[in-house]
Write a structure and sequence with these properties.
- By secondary structure, the chain is of the alpha+beta class.
- It is 23% helix and 35% strand.
- The chain contains eight helices and 20 strands.
- Helix 2 (92-102) crosses helix 3 and helix 2 (92-102) packs parallel to helix 4 (136-148).
- The radius of gyration is 25 Å and the shape is elongated.
- The two termini are 34 Å apart.
Length: 366
């Protein structure tokens, strides 16, 4: 049995359905992420788990117990918000100890657990400082320490890294991974940042318009999306209109409109006889799976087509090329900048060939 079960939960605000009949299972000790654009319902789910909001239908169970009649303060759940919500007039130690003070635990236990938490959060030397004297990353650690000191069964995190700059975000991602592993508490994390979700999570639920599009491990979401929305929302991807010519056990033959025939992997979860000739959809492939070259450099690949470089973007470690194909479609290809100082291998206007392996990409049928 999963530690947290969300069963057929629906939440409405007037005529607006924020969460639409969602079911999720979250295992103990898991780093689970709710990922999606603004307004997709992910924060509403978090608020219902915390008890700040109640579902109109369905159940939320923790360790098999329905939480419906348990008020927020009695749930073994703590929430870390984007704003951190630290008390400005309290020191770091006082902020962290606050839940234990409110629970009226003995002073010696409060002192001991506060010292342990300060050490664990690497804040022992900041115990007497005030929030205004701390960096953004330190403030976040105070908020996490305050949430964890009461030893909750679940820690809910509502976009806690959103206010940090890019470098500090990356540092805090590593800290969150290490912290979650060390304390062994189940983390339920909300974000709209795909890279963050991929880096942190054991499993991700991709949400769209109040519904779950796909729940999977990060590598499977990225490599094997099951819908156009997931493919487009997670990272960068090329999508080419296609029709099925043949569906076999080992491959799928597709016709790319205006280009011609390609070979693609078999469609996961669809029986061969369920994907008949003429079925329409899109062929989706990541830019890093697309090779770009001239003359015979791409010719050995099963799928290859001529095109013209229309734009390029130098990103330091790689250059992204946008290539116009004969059918008018634009396809992106990544090329590592392995030679020092080389920003461009191809220039705008160059005639090139792009290609990809027969086992790369995925066909998403309509």
């Amino acid at each position: 049995m999963a530690q947290l079960e969300i069963r057929n939960v629906t939440r409405r605000f007037g005529d607006f359905v924020a969460v639409d009949n969602i079911s999720l299972n979250i295992e103990a000790g898991e780093f689970f992420t709710l990922l999606g654009p603004s307004g997709c319902g992910k924060t509403t789910i978090l608020r219902m788990i915390a008890g700040f909001d109640l579902p109109d239908a369905g159940q939320i169970l923790l360790d098999g117990k329905d939480l419906a009649d348990t008020p927020p303060e009695q749930r073994p759940v703590r929430t870390v918000f984007q704003s951190y919500a630290l008390f400005p007039h309290m020191t770091v130690a006082q902020n962290i100890a606050f839940p234990l003070v409110m629970a009226r635990l003995p002073q010696n236990e409060i002192r001991q657990r506060t010292q342990e938490t300060l050490k664990h959060m690497r804040l022992a030397d900041k115990a007497d400082h005030y929030p205004r004297e701390l960096s953004g990353g330190q403030q976040q650690r105070v908020a996490l320490g305050r949430a964890l000191i009461s030893r909750p069964r679940l820690l809910l995190l509502d976009e806690p890294l959103a206010a940090l700059d890019a470098k500090l975000r990356e540092e805090m991602q590593i800290e969150l991974i290490n912290l979650q592993r060390d304390v062994g508490i189940t983390f339920v994390f909300v974000t709209h940042a795909q890279d963050e979700a991929l880096a942190l999570s054991h499993h991700i639920a991709v949400m769209n318009r109040g519904r779950v599009e796909q729940v999977d491990e990060p590598s499977k979401l990225y490599g094997f999306p099951k819908s156009r929305f997931v493919a487009d929302f997670i990272g960068h991807i090329n999508m080419l209109d296609a029709q099925v010519l043949e569906a076999a056990h080992g491959h799928t033959r597709l016709n790319i409109h205006g280009l011609g025939e390609i070979t693609a992997p078999p469609v996961a979860g669809v029986a061969v006889d369920g994907l008949t000739s003429g079925v329409g959809g899109v062929f989706a492939i990541r830019p890093e799976q697309v090779r770009i070259g001239i003359r015979g450099e791409v010719a050995e690949l099963k799928n290859h087509f001529p095109g013209e470089v229309r734009n390029l973007l130098y990103c330091g470690d790689v250059t992204t090329y946008k290539v116009l194909l004969a059918n008018g479609a634009m396809i992106e290809a990544l090329l590592p900048n392995s030679a020092p100082g080389r920003a461009e291998l191809f220039k705008v206007g160059d005639t090139v060939k792009v290609g990809w392996r027969h086992d790369a990409g995925v066909f998403l049928h309509e």
